[in-house]
Amino acid sequence: MKKGLLLILLILIFSCKDQKGKNVSVGQDIQEQQENEQDSVYLFTSFREPADEGLYLAYSDDGYHWKNLGGPYLKPNVGESKIMRDPSVEKGPDGTYHMVWTTEWQGGNGFGHASTKDFINWSEAEYIPAMAHESDVVNVWAPELFYDKDRDRFIILWASTIPYRFEKGQEEEKNNHRMYFTTTKDFKKFTDTQLFMNAGFSMIDCVIVKRGKDDYVLVIKDNTRPNRNLRVAFGSDPLGPYRNISKPFTGFKTEGPTVIQQDGKYIIYYDHYGEKSFGAVETENFHQFTNISDKIELPEGHKHGTITRISGKVLDGLISKSKELK
After folding, report:
1. Continuous H helices in 16-71
2. Which distant-in-sequence residues (6+ apart) come within 8 Å of 32 by Cβ?
3. Model confidence over 258-288: pLDDT tens digits?
4. CATH 3.40.50.12780 fits 31-325, yes or no
5. Cα–Cα distance, 78 to 124 (Å, whole number)
6. Cα–Cα distances in Å, from 34 out to 55, 70, 114, 146?
7. What is the pTM of this model?
């Protein structure tokens, strides 16, 4: 009997090591760990001006150097303008990637949505009229996805202008943005749209970063005319409130942030549209930032998007497809 118990104990001990020999704490989600090991390649979504062609992609093994996969992989066919800007992608718990994007530069009351497993075969694109209840809304810009694992829901943020609704500085009434949000579990039913953040100035391109339990960072574009740069704020819930807004950590005319963890640090990529290039900073704590723009390489024409992870199998399919698109 004692030998039997000892054997069971030994089996449990060895089963708590992964294939690479790393210790795994009892109770850890093994399935999630295996999925993370398989998702070994970074994928960067983007578009190309004038934004009428659709989704472009690039991939990277190391998070710094990106290889062009070309495009378009999904052509824009919703919204009056039939454009695709700022494609944001997030992977759901079932392995499906959801993407939302800007469909209008001016006008419109919603954003585009489609889903995929491999970035080649897509669901039918649909238009989500998230600001239909605001008759005076000027725009719906840069919808950004965040999967809130703790509550099993997707949070969608975007910037909209509603003239004469909020205080303003040097902004025109039709360029005085605030952030809004809705949530969904299935992209069929959505919660009522609500104001996400009003920090007293025009803001767009907000990205939620989870650092740990009850520990979130919000990367913000201060869109006021004198600034147009990136800052961060801090909160204990993904929906805020976010406080302690930092000083700018990027220069004039920067936007479109997306964040990854690499080499024990966070890398914040951003679209330096004033110089028609892409930049990046590195940080350990979101208080001190080091410019590493000289360490990154991106395809020419790359624009505002987000970074996710894909398996080697998905990448193989995209490489084959990219040859057809040339």
Report:
1. 30-38
2. none
3. 999 988 899 999 999 999 999 999 999 999 9
4. no
5. 10
6. 29, 29, 26, 21
7. 0.89
